[in-house]
Amino acid sequence: MRSIPRVKIAHLPTPIEALPRLSAVLGGAKLFVKRDDQTGLGMGGNKTRKLEFLVAEALANGAKTMITAGAVQSNHCRQTAAAAARFGLECILVLAGEPPGESTGNLLLDRLFGAVIVWTSPAERDSTLQQTFDLAWENGKRPYLVPYGGSSATGASAYVFAIQELLEQGSHPDWIVFASSSGGTQAGMALGAHIFGYRGKVLGISIDEDRETLSERVASLANAAADFLGEEARLGAQDILVNDDYLGQGYGVMGEVEKEAIQLFARHEGLLLDPVYTGRAAAGMIDLIRKGQLRRDESVLFWHTGGSTALFADRYQSLVE
Ligand SMILES: *Cc1c(COP(=O)(O)O)cnc(C)c1O
């Protein structure tokens, strides 16, 4: 494998913990969690692994500013802002949505990390991002565009190494289950599984896309990451396991099932999930266990991708009402 530039910002390897009380409450399977919510940078999460490679690429290009886009409560934007601060880079975030009266959750931290925020509407997100990038370039800010969700070949490569890390920890679960959205995490995991010979199943619970769209995106990102790493592996959409049964009322809308999953993890394991990603993925995992599609005798590793900062956003108050 080609060696690629990387900065060290994540606390690795992230711990793997057993979840015996939650397993007992659900009547199986054997549950474990991999704590990528504890990657250490600005409250952590899966984007921190990707940023080790993205920041290295930005620095190699002589960048002075990181620019990216996301939703108002984007974890990706928060971690990008923290990484920029850590390397003395400016950060500009293009956030799609209504500017709220108060900055809570991730938005509060974006501001604390010193990011400049440009507001736009969801429909105009891409064009505003392009304009913001062009303007920064004209103003001599040497911008580096961090892809949406950090999901480029460079960013996805981080999860190839995360699979290597898991196997080196001696963990070989029957299933790895996690939240999948922009696809970089799943692409890296699927490619890493292929390269390092992980024999279990890598199941992405889709947060906001239909199965066909997401599995095609993941496969093409995995192949781009393989090229980037100098690997010959090729994956097709049929090699990518995506479940899209849990899209609920759409992105960022916490329903009863997400609420139940968050409460079960909190009350039985003292573990925090988030309302947008891990709450939905855990709800899917719990449902698949109850239906017997993840069997009692199987081991299931829930790969925690972070995001619990969003619990402190005003809009999710109903969790405890
Ligand atoms: C971004 C994010 C994901 C999804 O990861 P992708 O690589 O975009 O698919 C999952 N969980 C959390 C908490 C995230 O912030």
Number of extended strands:
10
Helix content: 40-55%
Instruction: Report the structural category.
Output: alpha/beta
Taking the sheet with the most strands, its summary is:
6 strands, mixed
Provide the β-strand percentage band. Answer: 15-25%
Low-confidence stretches: none
- What's the arrangement of strands in the largest beta sheet? 1-2-10-7-8-9
Distance between the termini: 51 Å
Instruction: Give the radius of gyration.
Output: 19 Å
State the assembly state of the protein chains: single chain
Give the averaged pLDDT, no decimals: 97
Number of helical stretches of at least 4 residues:
10
Order of helices and strands: EHEHEHEHEHEHEHEHEHHE
The backbone outline, from C-alpha atoms, is: globular
What does this entry look like structurally?
This protein is an alpha/beta fold. It is 41% helix and 16% strand. The protein is built from ten helices and ten strands. It has helices spanning 20-26, 46-60, 75-86, 105-112, 125-138, 153-168, 184-196, 211-229, 256-269, 278-290, and strands spanning 16-18, 30-35, 65-71, 90-96, 116-120, 143-145, 175-180, 201-206, 241-243, 299-304. The strands form two sheets. It has a six-stranded mixed β-sheet with strand order 1-2-10-7-8-9, sandwiched between helices. Helix 1 (20-26) packs across helix 9, helix 2 (46-60) packs across helix 6 (153-168) and helix 7 packs across helix 8. It is globular. The model has no long low-confidence stretch (mean pLDDT 97). The protein binds pyridoxal-5'-phosphate. Pyridoxal-5'-phosphate (PLP) binds next to helix 3, strand 7 and helix 7.
